[in-house]
Amino acid sequence: MGDLAKIFKAYDVRGVVPDEFDEQTAEAVGAAFVEVTGAESVVVAHDMRESSVPLAAAFVRGARSRRADVVHAGLGSTDLLYYASGSLGLPGVMFTASHNPARYNGMKMCRSGAVPIGGDSGLSEIRDRAAELVGVTAEPVGSLIEKDLLSGYAHHLRSLVDLSGIRPLKVVVDAGNGMGGHTVPAVFDGLPIELVPLYFELDGEFPNHEANPIEPQNLVDLQRAVVESGADIGLAFDGDADRCWVIDERGESVSPSAITALVAARELAKHPGATIIHNLITSHGVPEIVREHGGVPVRTRVGHSFIKAEMARRDAVFGGEHSAHYYFRDFWFADSGMLAAMHVLAALGEQERALSETVGAYARYHASGEINSAVADQGEALRRVREAFAGRGEFDELDGLTVTGPDWWFNLRASNTEPLLRLNAEAADQTKMSAIKDEVLAIVGKVTE
């Protein structure tokens, strides 16, 4: 039996298989999911991990035992599951542990229309009911339909961003042995793109590198391949392919904030005056550029549930996060790394400039990137930082502590899941950014001594 209290997180389910998450648990969650949501039908998909097939099958048994019909999409990315939920009008469950190591697996759940299920929107109730149902079995009554949704997913994305008329581009894609290896060929089929594939073999053991593009060491192979092949752009997807990281033609990493600003400008050209969501640690260049293009920027806390809720509440056309999650109103307010990549390819392919020049206008400031510090007493560290910066800038506590000076800002916030403080700093020049970053880290470091 798995450990329900441990594997149910704020936004999803994730744990080590089978010690924390096993088939008996998955079956109980399937039954609980139907009971709590009242679903008459459910759509299910899974990633390429070896444990995903039996776990998904167990969930299906549990759901069908509560008289729900199940549409089983088989292999898919997380944004394919969102497409399935949105296009079919069904609640859905994706079996994946995203970028986590091979021994992990998990579930991402949504209601009909890809509306996320989190701790305060049904996930806690599903956990509690599943705990009561572990070991309780019943004959499957609901029907099971296997349905290939890959071609429909690809067609839908191509209908949102038309790449048929772009100039020919050479594109290196590092799928990290994750689901991008399954979805990218379908989406790019027939487009004026010369695809150079890296690690497209589906392998949940991740034999080449972790499928986590936010870590610089996982981008090295892609950066080298872009330069050596003379490619126009490189794209790196995480394990479940809902995040996408961009590399320019020089092999340099492009900030997700710059991508957020670029896509926002494109969406505002189609939807003048629309609202754009960004979390509080994206670059200050994002709201500036949104305003310059006639849009309304709205700042949120970090975390996809906050972004999605705010997008739906304000009917925002687009939202972006520092972690390379990108959300689209035209995609049921859900995130899709593939759709973001297609916007970048369109922006690049509609004119002759190189990618570094194309995105240059959207990268205005020098950023530290996210720096994690292990701190047992997070409250004391935050108190000392507040004290040190008193009178030097404006304070904001929407999510952790944000201090904004005349030409710099930083945010220091606690991790939701680990004893870590996360620092992001930005300034108009590199010297100022480094000075602010080093000062905050020195204060935090003294608490850990």
TrEMBL record:
InterPro entries: A-D-PHexomutase_a/b/a-I, A-D-PHexomutase_a/b/a-I/II/III, A-D-PHexomutase_a/b/a-II, A-D-PHexomutase_a/b/a-III, A-D-PHexomutase_C, A-D-PHexomutase_C_sf, Alpha-D-phosphohexomutase_SF
Key words of the record: Isomerase, Magnesium, Metal-binding, Phosphoprotein
Cofactors named for this entry: Mg(2+)
Ranges for domain Alpha-D-phosphohexomutase C-terminal: 370-441
Alpha-D-phosphohexomutase alpha/beta/alpha domain ranges (all copies): 6-129, 152-251, 259-365
A UniProt-annotated Pfam family: PGM_PMM_III
Superkingdom in the source lineage: Bacteria
CDD domains reported in the protein's UniProt record: PMM_PGM (cd03089)
Entry similarity comment: Belongs to the phosphohexose mutase family.
Protein name (record): Phosphomannomutase/phosphoglucomutase
Biological source species: Nonomuraea purpurea
